[in-house]
Amino acid sequence: MQFRPEHVYTFVAFVSSVLGMWSILSAKMTRQENRSTVLEKDIENLKEFKESANRRLDSHDEQNKAILVLAEQVKSMGDDIRELKRVIMKEN
């Protein structure tokens, strides 16, 4: 079998087309993988932020409960002071 110039040209054109497509697809795959890595990191950061926000909200809930208890104690103390004031006023 004898190779003609047009066979060589066809072969070279085919090989260069395949290499070009492989190069393009490889570059696209690399960019897509980089995007995936960035998205995974963003998701990880959002999960950490969510956990931090939940801890802060839990802390605020505990602080609000403590404030409500203190407010109730202050109210009770005010009632006790009024009662003492009435007792003192009756004695005078």
Structure description:
The chain has one helix at residues 5-91. The mean pLDDT is 92. With 92 residues, it is an all-alpha fold.
SSE arrangement:
Layout: H1 5-91
Key phrases:
single chain, 92 residues, mainly alpha, 1 helix, 95% helix
Short account of what is shown:
The chain is mainly α and 92 residues long. Helices cover 95% and strands 0% of the residues.
Q: What is the N-to-C succession of helices and strands?
A: H
Stretches where pLDDT is under 50 for at least 5 consecutive residues are none
What would you call the structural class?
Answer: mainly alpha
- Calculate the terminal CA-CA distance, rounded to whole Å: 133 Å
Report the strand count.
0
Rg computed from alpha carbons, rounded to a whole number of angstroms: 39 Å
Q: Main sheet, how many strands, which sense, barrel?
A: none
Strand content: under 5%
The percent range for helix content is over 70%
Q: Given the C-alpha coordinates, what overall shape results? A: rod-shaped
How many helices? The count is 1
Please, what is the average pLDDT? Answer: 92
